[in-house]
């Protein structure tokens, strides 16, 4: 008797974009000098070969929480696709504090004679950039540095009462969905008497002036939060898969958005889930 032979798909290659959650901006005590913007979430894009009938976990990292009253910014959370891990953005430094390390580093808080200059945190190689240094003033009236972005470091905070907050570093554009979108911009630093730093292109939130509220990073971009007396939270990350439609299984959890672009099916995970190849 002849037995039917079930065909088994061969392994196939997908393109991925994995963006971690952005760091929250640093905060300042009431009536105090500037803090650093949050660093953008780590940004990774490449290809990965998948084995049919295997389930691949997708974790979308949350952004770092808002803080207040002279606290360092909260780090963003990692995003994961299979063996690929993007590192959460570093929180911005509070007044008189260095920025935190992360996918991209948080900006340094403002410094003065009693604290010295405060530096931006380092980014992770291949994922993001360093945060900008905080400004310095002997009378304690300067601005915080901007958080680093996927493609550019954060700007330095200005010195003195008129110093402007450092701008967040720019993110990186991707056309994985079929149209160009920029993600992973850094958050802007806050200032004492001038202007808060602009958020970096790609979802970074702007910093505030004294006693103000920083702008949150944009959700599902990994943007860093802006610094302020009340800091902006970091934006959540995202995981996007571009899968040859001929190989696409249709088996997912977590309700990703499903679209097509040319001969590929696009899965965009705005929250955690899985894909079975």
How does this model look, in words?
The model is unreliable at 1-6 (pLDDT under 50). A hairpin with a 6-residue loop joins strand 6 (172-174) and strand 7 (181-183). The protein is an all-beta fold and 277 residues long. It has one domain. Strands 2-1-8-11-10 form a five-stranded antiparallel beta sheet, with no helix packed on it. The chain has a five-stranded antiparallel beta sheet with strand order 5-4-3-12-9, with no helix packed on it. It has a two-stranded antiparallel ribbon with strand order 6-7. The protein contains no helices and twelve strands. The chain is 0% helix and 21% strand.
Descriptors for this entry?
277 residues; mainly beta; five-stranded antiparallel sheet; 21% strand; elongated; disordered N terminus
Strand order of the largest sheet: 2-1-8-11-10
Q: How many domains make up the 3D coordinates?
A: 1
CA-based gyration radius? 20 Å
General shape = elongated
Largest sheet: 5 strands, antiparallel
Q: What count of helical segments does DSSP give?
A: 0
Low confidence ranges: 1-6
Q: Give the N-to-C terminal Cα separation.
A: 32 Å
